[in-house]
Task: inverse folding
């Protein structure tokens, strides 16, 4: 302060440091603003915790400086990680009865970046090892006293023998209302592995007096991070509260650039002052006058203000002028000066702040305000600002469009004008607004009413804020009609699903991802005998799956939980012990690709199973009967064949014998089909390709001739024919092969018959071709003369097929096509 007691610094970051350890004892608000830490965070730190010495040089200032100490440049970081080059100007003084350092922080980042050589011009503060007039206490981790210094005895009245390892002492030493706070601070420091923290609190002396002390605590940990001991330096600050207040008043008014002018010449400037004007300290000190750094237009103003200070004007006199840098650039600066006595003579000490960027920032701020207003109005949600009385101070265009009211109408009104009558509790709305105003953000649903009377749902978000220096509530209102409608639809769908679930005529159970029952419907109770309340939380497989089926049920559950729907027929156990047959549908409930639940659907098919067993039994009996019929038909046809053969032996007529043998062959072809059906598991169809081979073998053996050797080649697809198609096909083949044997190979030693049968997309194509002399052109299926041709024509019509004889070169070819009975 100067001789009149006026503050010396304005808004400059300042620290009070432990002289030996550089632990931070106190800071001013400018330091808090610059670094971003709170006062408590600072007081738990050492100066080296957020910075390191970057460069060091002594400033030889002699008697021309009133700073009384050394300067140091540090590379420091703010709480947000921003790097700062800081010059610390320090002064040793007596703080609360003990030596301490007052360190003033000057941001020299720009100067360091422009010229690193200037960094080396800044001197570094050196610490001094002094004994502190402070009580020293060492604690065990359990807060028992380990060491008790002589100063502690003097301050608190207890001797070391009375307190060391006394488990009860902590409760006698610390007031009851502060014990939990003290322990909590220790625990928080250990949890965060802090090495130092500072605290203040009340202490009870041996005589019963209550004093206020400041504690500087250092924590020692072992390699594993466990607390080993606590060292506390304690000072009585009860009588120094007023001096602390005065100190804070001083520190809160510090600026960045510092100067001292005497006899019209700068006797001292700090590095930041020199950096503002682009000179070195050496260039300015004892060489420059204030006029050298001020624009000619403002020199008269500067001279007048200096003279006022020297004349003892007590006004602080902060004002703005234009400065001129070494490069000729014009800057805006803010000045503050006070009269002091320097070396016994009047001088002006003051601070200077470059506000050029601030002026530019203000210009940009005005532009940003306009931009903000545009943005404010461009938001489709309704935004309005409410004052402490709940009245509209400002609304955006979104609010006008949402409610169809003009801004001029809304300003000064309350939200009541926008509320839907009968659907909004206005008293509750006022309470929520007050809570938001008090700093507690609010979010709730509301019903609004447009100017045309339309009522619609809204989502309201209220946050506290400031509007032109007034505490306000910033409210955002969003029209959620679509969301509300969707929610209503969802609610209806849920209700419909609930009714479907409960009223479904088949048992349904809902299980979670652990296969535990969450709910069952009425049908489940009707079939299995359990309701939801008595089986909720049980494993469904353990409840209704019979022994011997549990492994199978487990596999089914695993498949469903993999996201697959399962259909299964099995047996399940009712509450009464009955085992029933059920169809089981396992349906997974999949959310975001994960199975979160299962629906188990059960259909009681016990009656159907019993009916199926009866049908199977009846069908088996019919199959046995039908097989017996085929067997008897085959045997009866064999008897007929025998009779025909016997009659042929007893007939002297050659024509009659031929007729009897032809009839015998026709009966044999039919009998062979019944034999195949009897031998086949399927009593309604035969494998015609196998039948064809056996049929030709029988015909060849019966038609064997010494004059001609006939070979038959078969190329047949695997074809299943019903008896109604197999018998006509067999008879047709019998006629074709026997006729070829009889008539096609006269005067030939060898003959060949090729038989092919194909299934071409449901159409059966039969082709029989020989290499004989060829059929006469007089032979025609349209007007058949022989019994054999009549049979072929009749049987082709029976098959609903198309047949023909082809004469192409040597031999004869017969083609037959008909639709396959599937």
Result:
């Amino acid at each position: 302060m100067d001789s009149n007691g006026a503050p010396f610094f304005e808004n400059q970051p300042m620290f009070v440091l432990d002289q030996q350890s550089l632990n931070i004892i106190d800071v001013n608000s400018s330091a808090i603003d610059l670094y971003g830490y709170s006062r408590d965070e600072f007081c738990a730190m050492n100066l080296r915790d957020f910075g390191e010495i970057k460069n060091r040089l002594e400033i030889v200032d002699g008697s021309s400086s009133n700073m009384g100490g050394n300067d140091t440049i540090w590379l420091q970081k703010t709480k947000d990680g921003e790097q700062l080059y800081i010059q610390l100007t320090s002064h040793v003084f007596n703080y609360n009865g003990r030596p301490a350092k007052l360190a003033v922080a000057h941001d020299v980042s720009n100067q360091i970046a422009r010229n690193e050589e200037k960094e080396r011009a800044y001197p570094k503060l050196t610490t001094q090892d002094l004994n502190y007039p402070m009580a020293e206490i060492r604690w065990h981790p359990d807060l028992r006293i380990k060491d008790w210094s002589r100063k502690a005895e003097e301050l608190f009245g207890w001797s070391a023998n009375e307190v060391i390892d006394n488990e009860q002492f902590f409760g006698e030493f610390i007031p009851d209302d502060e014990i939990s706070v003290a322990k909590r601070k220790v625990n928080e420091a250990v949890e965060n592995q802090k090495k130092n923290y500072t605290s203040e609190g009340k202490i009870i002396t041996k005589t019963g007096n209550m004093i206020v002390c400041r504690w500087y605590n250092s924590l020692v940990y072992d390699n594993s991070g466990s607390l080993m001991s606590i060292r506390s330096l304690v000072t009585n600050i009860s009588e120094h509260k007023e001096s602390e207040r005065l100190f804070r008043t001083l520190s809160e008014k510090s600026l960045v650039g510092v100067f001292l002018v005497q006899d019209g010449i700068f006797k001292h400037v700090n590095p930041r002052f020199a950096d503002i004007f682009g000179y070195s300290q050496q260039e300015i000190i004892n060489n420059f006058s204030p006029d050298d750094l001020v624009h000619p237009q403002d020199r008269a103003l500067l001279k007048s203000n200096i003279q006022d200070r020297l004349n003892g004007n007590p006004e602080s006199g902060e004002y703005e002028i234009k400065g001129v840098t070494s490069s000729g650039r014009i800057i805006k600066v803010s000045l503050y000066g006070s009269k002091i006595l320097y070396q016994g003579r009047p001088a002006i000490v003051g601070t200077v702040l470059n506000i050029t960027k601030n002026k530019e920032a203000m210009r940009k701020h005005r532009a940003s305000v306009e931009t903000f207003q545009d943005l404010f109005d461009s938001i489709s949600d309704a935004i309005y600002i409410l004052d402490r009385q709940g009245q509209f101070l400002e609304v955006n265009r979104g609010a006008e469009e949402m409610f169809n009211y003009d801004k001029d109408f809304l300003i000064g009104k309350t939200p009541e004008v926008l509320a839907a009558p009968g659907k909004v509790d206005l008293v509750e709305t006022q309470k929520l607004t007050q809570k938001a105003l008090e700093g507690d953000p609010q979010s709730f649903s509301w019903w609004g009413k447009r100017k045309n009377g339309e009522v619609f749902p809204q989502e309201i978000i209220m946050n506290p804020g400031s509007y032109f220096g007034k505490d306000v509530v910033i409210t955002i209102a969003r029209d959620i009609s679509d969301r509300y409608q969707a929610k209503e639809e969802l609610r209806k769908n849920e209700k419909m699903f609930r009714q479907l679930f409960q009223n479904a005529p088949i048992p349904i159970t809902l299980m979670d991802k652990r296969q535990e029952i969450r709910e069952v419907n009425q049908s489940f109770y009707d079939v299995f005998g359990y309701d939801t309340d008595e089986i909720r939380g049980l494993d469904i497989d353990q409840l209704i799956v019979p022994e011997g089926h549990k492994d199978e049920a487990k596999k089914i559950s695993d498949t469903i939980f993999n996201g697959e729907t399962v259909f299964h027929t099995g047996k399940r156990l009712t509450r009464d012990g009955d085992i029933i047959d059920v169809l089981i549908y396992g349906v997974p409930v999949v959310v975001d690709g994960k199975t979160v639940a299962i629906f188990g659907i059960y259909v009681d098919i016990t009656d159907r199973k019993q009916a199926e067993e009866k049908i199977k039994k009846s069908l088996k009996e019919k199959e046995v009967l039908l097989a017996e019929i085929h067997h008897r038909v085959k045997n009866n046809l064999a008897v007929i064949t025998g009779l025909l053969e016997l009659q042929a032996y007893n007939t002297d007529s050659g024509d009659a014998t031929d007729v009897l043998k032809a009839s015998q062959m026709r009966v044999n072809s039919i009998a062979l089909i019944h034999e195949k059906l009897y031998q086949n598991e399927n009593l309604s169809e035969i494998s015609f390709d196998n039948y064809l081979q056996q049929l030709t073998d029988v015909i060849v053996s019966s038609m064997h001739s010494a004059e001609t050797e006939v070979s038959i080649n078969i190329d047949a697809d695997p074809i299943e024919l019903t008896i109604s198609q197999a018998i006509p096909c067999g008879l047709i083949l019998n006629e074709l092969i026997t006729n070829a044997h009889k008539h096609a190979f006269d005067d030939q030693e060898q003959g060949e018959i090729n038989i092919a049968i194909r299934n071409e997309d449901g159409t059966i194509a039969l082709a029989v071709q020989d290499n004989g002399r060829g059929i006469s052109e007089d032979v025609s299926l349209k007007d058949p003369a022989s019994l054999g041709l009549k049979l072929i024509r009749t049987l082709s019509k029976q098959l609903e097929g198309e047949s023909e004889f082809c004469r192409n070169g040597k031999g004869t070819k017969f083609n037959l096509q008909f639709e396959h009975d599937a």
In short: DSSP finds 25 helices and 33 strands in the chain. Confidence is low (pLDDT under 50) at residues 1-10, 55-70, 115-131, 246-254. The chain has six domains: 1-133, 136-246, 255-367, 379-484, 504-604, 622-819.
